Amino acid sequence: MQHLIILPILLPLLSGLLMLVKRDSAVLPRRAIALVSTALLLAVSAMLVVQSDSGDITYYALGDWQPPFGIILVLDRLSALMVCLTSFLALGSVAYACAGDDRKGSNFHGLFQLQLMGINGAFLTGDIFNLFVFFEVLLIASYSLLMHGGGKDRTQAGFHYVALNLAGSAMFLIALGVLYGTTGTLNMADMSQKVASLDPDRLGLLKAGAFLLLVVFGLKAAILPLYFWLPRAYSSAPAPVAALFAIMTKVGIYAILRVYTLIFGDSAGGLANFVQPWLWWFALATLALGGLGVLSARDLRNQVAYLLLISVGTLLVGVSMNREAPIAALLYYMIHTTLVSGGLFLLADAIGEQRGKAGARIVPGRGVTQPALLGLFYFIGAATIIGLPPFSGAIGKALLLDSALPSEQPWLWSLLLLSSLAGLVAMARSGSTVFWKAGRGDNDGPRLKTAMLAGLILLLGASPVLSILAGPITRFTDASATQLLDQDAYGEAIISPNVTGGDS
Question: Do you find a cis peptide bond into 371, omega within 30 degrees of 0?
Answer without folding.
Answer: no
